[in-house]
Structures are given as structure tokens and as C-alpha cells.
Write the C-alpha cells for this entry.
Amino acid sequence: PGIEPARQARLPPLFHVHGSDDPLMPLAAVTPDAVIPGGSHIIHLSHADAVNALLREWIATRLQTAPPDGP
């Protein structure tokens, strides 16, 4: 089971951000890369600043640069 290594190599990078209080997909059921405390199912709307900060940091790490400032 799982994804074949050749296919895995072609997949784009994935960064799973999850809300700690998601009632539709409980935190115990997933293994996210980052958890937004108090976040529900639509964290990209309810906690946009926190999600954006995590994404900037993750992208900068992948590009090996400093994260940009601002929204």
C-alpha cells in the first residue's frame, strides 16, 4: 500500500495546516505539519493571518530565504 516511489517523486510538496478545533476532521484523525490553536474547519478564513504566517515560513524554508514581511 501507499504511493509508489516514482509517483511520490512527481507529487508537489504538501504542507498540511489544521485547526485544533475542527469538528469535521478532528485533530486526532490527522497528522498535520502545523496546528492553528482554536482553528475550526475553515482556518484559511477564520485564522488567515496565522495560516499566512505559517505558509510564508514554509515557503521561505523551501526556498532557503528569509520570509517576507507583511500580509
Observations:
- The helical segments are 5-10, 43-46, 48-63.
- The beta strands are 17-19, 34-36.
- The CA atoms of residues 45 and 61 lie 24 Å apart.
- Residues 48-63 form the longest helix (16 residues).
